[in-house]
Amino acid sequence: MQDIRTFYITTYQDRFFTQPPSWFMLYVWLELLYHVPLSAWAIGAILRDDPRLPIHLIVFATVTAITTSTCIADYMSWSSFSSTQKVELGKLYVPYLALSIFMGVDMYARLTNKLSKGLTTAEKKAI
Question: According to a count of CB atoms within 10 Å of the terminal CB, is the N or C end of the chain lower?
Fold first, then answer.
């Protein structure tokens, strides 16, 4: 694991892993206490088609989009980084953001579909 970390830091010079801002540790704890357990549960939930999955994954997607956007906004402000270095970091962070947005939109659509099944025609039009 240490070799992977060393390779990552050497290759990308990602300051979140060498000089993390104070808020970054909150994000690390969020990953450990929320994302990891939820991800483990979600794997089984996907396989058994758990009806609670969309509500959990829309929260997961929202949190992931917010934290990843924060990281992107922060590294874009690093004046000591060249545009090329920022693009290289973007290759790691932007797909993660895109995936979380896709997941959020998908879960929103699934929830809307499930909720609208029990609504009247007039209530469906209001959505």
Answer: N
